Amino acid sequence: DYYIAAVDDSEADGWQEVAGSIIPEELELQVEDNERERYGLSTNLDWRPRATTSLFLRGLFTRTREVTSNSEYEFGFEGDLAMDGPTTGRFTGGSAELDLSEDDERETLWAVTLGGEQNLSRAITWDVAGTFTQGRLDSRGPDVTFETTDEDALSSHFDVSPYFFVIEPDDPAYVSNPANYPLRSASFNLGPNRENTWIGATNLRIDGE
Questions:
Q1: Where does the pLDDT of residue 8 fall: very low under 50, low under 70, confident under 90, or very high at 90 and above?
Q2: Distance CA 49, CA 44 (A)
Q3: How far apart are CA 177 and CA 5, in angstroms?
């Protein structure tokens, strides 16, 4: 899976209305890549040691791995706003932030069911079954954020008349230089999770004539 979002107003800082025009306060670009693999195995074993007795064993195993890589770039408008026209203007400052993250999630589920049925007589049947399941979910991954520090170096012009509005930084070389994005924060996330489940059931059936 591959996902790109531009101008995501659900997460961006918002908008402001100036002289009848809607001016965004932030541009947000997201590029997300998902890789997923899944496989499973099931098995069944039935045994009748005698005519009145039947036993069974059921097994299930599944494993899923999903790696999500996300690159998010935010360009925020700062400083004073001067409108050049109904849909064009200039901000005297700005800020830029790059967030890189990756989530490696591995999920494993297996289940075993053991049971049987016994005919106690021609009219009475008793069955019993027990199931044990175990689920494991492990997630890990880094998350780092880089952000500019010079607000005045990110002044820009904009035009919101197109559907995808245009932003032109006054100093494109500053915006494109990785050296101007010092590390602001870094983290590594670990999320182990385990769940065990026991289930038992029994039934007694009496058949009438």
A1: very low
A2: 16
A3: 23
Task: Fill in the amino acid letter for 51.
Answer: A
Adjacent-strand bridge partners of 161: none
Is residue 193 classed exposed, middle or buried when 0-12, 13-18 and 19+ CB atoms within 10 A define those classes?
exposed
Average pLDDT, the chain: 88
CA gap 83, 76 in Å, rounded: 17
Q: Cα–Cα distance between 121 and 16 in angstroms, integer?
A: 81
Cβ neighbours of 58 (radius 10 Å): 16
Nearest to 26 by CA among 167, 173, 184, 145: 167
The tokens of 205 are what? 């059936």
Q: How far apart are CA 157 and CA 149, in angstroms?
A: 19
Is the pLDDT confidence value at 7 over 70? no
- Per DSSP, the three-state class of 11 is coil
CA distance 192 to 81: 48
Which of 169, 170, 174, 171 has the alpha carbon at shortest distance from 27?
A: 169
- What would the pLDDT profile of 157-174 be if each residue is shown by its tens digit? 988 888 778 888 999 999
Q: How far apart are CA 156 and CA 94, in angstroms?
A: 8
**Low-confidence winner among 23-27, 47-51, 134-138 (lowest mean pLDDT):** 23-27
C-alpha to C-alpha distances, 38 to 1, 132, 139, nearest whole angstrom: 14, 22, 16
Give pLDDT, residue 13: 54
Residues 6+ apart with CB under 8 A from 51: none
